[in-house]
DNA sequence: CAGAATCCTCGACGATACTG
DNA sequence: CAGTATCGTCGAGGATTCTG
């Protein structure tokens, strides 16, 4: 995507996997929980337990993992209050806020075009099911 | 993301997995080859073999699969010319063109912010490595 | 040429149990 | 409360072989 943005020549996979900025972003946000998590953090600092309840169905492991990854990516700030019992708060960094904007763009595109996608899938599956293999349909091609 | 876009209350995972438009889009384009493939199709109709050579490193299986998925999603149009040897051409539909726009937005955000992400990762990893577990470092907090 | 079919690996994610 | 540790599943994607 970066390698051949102007010209469509030959792609180098290795270079792509290393250098393509879009891949980095996609890999960072396309995970199962990342988008929901970022969304759940928009309103401000939240404690771990609250997040877990907010993202109904997430595992502690997945939540910890996703948060850790986002923290490593500089999108989430983790603050530990050394009290008993422990208390940890998570909030979006500036970069994290920017991710919200990015996701807003994706969401906008999605709401505009997902219906077409759904329709296309339905049509495709219908064709695949109904069409009992048109063996001899001599369509006089142009 | 859709379910709780205004209010951050409780998410229903099931509803999210079913209904969230953003998830549909992310799942559709975040695959390993999809972005590169769409990019490789931008210039116009291309034959299978050309695509395979253009996406250096892709397997026939992965290429076929990715193309089939994109076709099912209504983003790619597949045209078969019943000649011998067979000849199949792939091109972007209008929806596919729209995906290019979407990816352009993602790419823009990426080029703007990936450096920060990379830096954050480096800093995080450095901290994790160097810091030899500060067992008894009585830092007079505050 | 443009695939279909098969086998295999590997990482994401869930379930469960334990802890400071 | 906020995790860590361990095990198990499941699907994406690669490698290889075969075909109309």
Automatic annotation (TrEMBL), chains A, B:
Coiled-coil intervals, chain numbering: none
Keyword Cell cycle: no
Domain HTH hxlR-type: start-end pairs: 20-118
Keyword Nucleus in record: no
GO molecular function: DNA binding
Key words of the record: DNA-binding, Transcription, Transcription regulation
Signal peptide start-end: none
Domain of life: Bacteria
Any Pfam family the entry gives: HxlR
InterPro entries: HTH_HxlR, WH-like_DNA-bd_sf, WH_DNA-bd_sf
Protein name in the entry: DNA-binding HxlR family transcriptional regulator
